[in-house]
Amino acid sequence: MSEQNYREDRYTSRDGLSLYYRVYENSNSTKTPLLCIHGITRNSKDFHDFASLMQQDRPVISMDVRGRGQSDYDPEYHNYQIPVYVADMFELMDHIGLPTVVVVGTSMGGLVGMGMAAVQPERVRAIVLNDVGPVIEQTGIDRIWTYVGKTATVRSWDQAANILKTMNIENFSDYTQDDWLKFANNTFREQQDGTLVADYDPHVGTAVRESQEAAVPEDMWPLFESLAAIPILCLHGAMSDILSAETVKKMSDLHPTFTGVTIAHRGHTPDLREDQSVTAIRDFLGKIDG
């Protein structure tokens, strides 16, 4: 097994939760660090391969949002909403001592990144939106509601991989069995009895079902338009049911420094290991930091 290339740490949030994060360090770089924020039921493990690659050029930080992965579950599940996550991210930046970052946000993480840029634009150098924008398609919302918070016990990693394959084959049509096992490892955690459960608080589902407005604001175009001074790259899964080509086109029309790239053979979301995704992000960062 290769040597671990990241440092694990935790900080205590303003409301007393212990929140987990990883730092992929590069002490020789003066380039803006990346802050990676995952999707609604995901965790920092999703970014490991991407962070390991980007670490060659700059530091990368990824965090388990409260209620996910190794971060504490929130006893007040109504806190599972974007404004709270935005505050958590700024606390993480303050804890580490980061004056500014480039946010790489997958799905929900992209909405958190836009919220950060709206609240403290001087601290967000640029944003990479991974298959998310100001309009969330209802088809995708309906699909997500079918599984979020509905966790089941799984008895083996092969079973977990096959479940994810059944659910996501259209989004990742070129995945091998090893890819599905990696996906399973990023999605489930092993319990003491050897069974597996989804690696997030089921109350995340309760929170978004009780208040869809908290999960998906109705009209995010004013928020997006307020970010005109912040460069944005948007990766759009060609088969996405969350982000439409029409929305990407409108984003491009409204934003003066917007770049949209459609990632072939992907739905929601690109996993950031695709050559096309890596090239687009590197080109974008090259324009940001030189």
Automatic annotation (TrEMBL):
InterPro entries: AB_hydrolase_1, AB_hydrolase_fold, Carboxylesterase_BioH
Keyword vocabulary terms for this entry: Hydrolase
Single GO MF descriptor: hydrolase activity
Boundaries of every AB hydrolase-1 domain copy: 33-147
Superkingdom of the organism of origin: Bacteria
Hydrolase is among the record's keywords: yes
The keyword Nucleus is annotated on this UniProt entry: no
Protein's name according to its UniProt entry: Alpha/beta hydrolase
Protein species of origin: Emcibacter nanhaiensis
